[in-house]
Automatic annotation (TrEMBL):
It comes from Evansella vedderi. NCBIfam families: YgiT_finger (TIGR03831), YokU_near_AblA (TIGR03829). This is YokU family protein. CDD domains: MqsA (cd12870). InterPro entries: CHP03829_YokU, Znf_MqsA-type.
Length: 90
């Protein structure tokens, strides 16, 4: 896998913790085990844009008031959806 930051070919998949602000700005939450990319060359760890889009969409589709302060990526993605799709995405 090629690192988006330094273009090194040794980047690997990892699962890392990320902190996210809720769309309404009321609080931030901790999401553990988020699919990420880690580069041993530049030591950068980042989340691919597709995963970021999935997370952002999920926040718009679920009842965020029911979320605890910390949860896994899988628990987050398994939350019941209130909408079929993100109608706010243009």
């Amino acid at each position: 896998m090629i690192c988006n930051w330094c273009q090194h070919e040794g980047a690997v998949e990892a699962q890392k913790t990320a902190f996210w602000e809720l769309p309404d700005g009321t609080r931030a939450v901790e999401i553990t085990n988020v699919p990420s990319i880690q580069c041993p060359n530049c030591e950068m760890t980042y989340i691919d844009d597709d995963i970021i889009d999935e997370i952002e969409d999920q926040f718009m589709l679920i009842d965020t008031e029911k979320l605890p302060n910390s949860f896994t990526y899988q628990q987050f993605m398994n939350q019941p959806k209130l909408l079929k799709k993100n109608y706010f995405k243009f």
